Amino acid sequence: MSRPRRGPRRGYIDLDAGQLHYREAGEGEVLLLLHQTPSSSLQWEAAYPLLEAAGVRVLAPDTPGYGMSDPLSGRPSADAYAGAALALLDALDVPRATVLGHHTGAVTACELGRAHPERVSRLVLNGVPYFTAEQRARYLGRLPERAPEIREDGSQLLEPWERRLRVTTGYTDLRAMTRCVIEMLQVRETEWYGYIAVFEYDLEAALRQLAVPALLLTNTGEDLYRVTCRARDAHPDLSYVELEGGTHDIVDEQPGAWVAAVLDFMRG
């Protein structure tokens, strides 16, 4: 007797540098979800059942070097991450998809839509790291050059929790906080790679080159709210939706409102 399936299906595809892990749920129009750094496809766990119930086929890879995906060879870049996402669509015979990215994933999604508009029906950029060139250079210079040391007293295990507390003021979902810290600990060797890709990417120029419908999605309590508003003001041709409150864990905190905003744009 077959056992009932619980949660998304999981799989791997082969890339030149290793394997890419992904989660898949539902059937219907395809939505490709690209997570923030240093999370994984578990970022969307509260949204999977809602999207599946709405008749959406969700594909959610772990960015190379995060979750259960192998890192890419060479210096990380938005182009390389977009190439990995495109490889997943190719491997699963998906000709076109709505692509949604959050934070680092928004940069990857933007590059995928800019470079391969024939594969992207719509773009949702959720929490847009719309920094100036000066800001990007400054933030890039602050990134560590090597993985944190392992100390006998285990204090390095507390540092991700303390850092997550600092950047998630007003959090309400302890489970999401815990999950994210565990994910940070799992990728200590590659945690900063995604930030390199973000800070070396000219998002302002890329947004001007987009030829697919795009939505800027944000919430008023998240850390990239103000820079997302800056992107909205600089690109009035793009659609814009903001949710009230929340943090960068908005999918966990307000899954119903978040899914509704995404579906409205996908089907509008």
Q: Notable features of this structure?
A:
single chain; alpha/beta; Rossmann fold; 11 helices; globular
Helix and strand layout, with pairings?
Layout lengths: L8 E7 L2 E8 L3 E6 L13 H6 L2 E6 L16 H14 L5 E6 L1 H12 L4 E7 L6 H10 L16 H9 L6 H13 L6 H7 L3 H7 L4 E6 L5 H10 L4 E5 L6 H4 L1 H12 L2
Parallel strand pairs: 3-4, 3-5, 5-6, 6-7, 7-8
Antiparallel strand pairs: 1-2, 2-4
Structure notes:
The chain has 268 residues and is α/β, with parallel strands linked by helices. It has a single domain (9-266), classed as Rossmann fold, CATH 3.40.50.1820. The protein is 39% helix and 19% strand. The chain contains eleven helices and eight strands. The chain has helices spanning 48-53, 78-91, 104-115, 133-142, 159-167, 174-186, 193-199, 203-209, 225-234, 250-253, 255-266, and strands spanning 9-15, 18-25, 29-34, 56-61, 97-102, 120-126, 214-219, 239-243. Strands 1-2-4-3-5-6-7-8 form an eight-stranded mixed beta sheet, with helices on both faces. α2 packs across α3 and α4 (133-142) packs antiparallel against α7 (193-199). The longest helix has 14 residues, at 78-91. The radius of gyration is 18 Å and the shape is globular. The termini are far apart.
What's the quick description here?
The protein has one domain: Rossmann fold, CATH 3.40.50. It contains 11 helices and 8 strands. The protein has helices at 48-53, 78-91, 104-115, 133-142, 159-167, 174-186, 193-199, 203-209, 225-234, 250-253, 255-266, and strands at 9-15, 18-25, 29-34, 56-61, 97-102, 120-126, 214-219, 239-243.
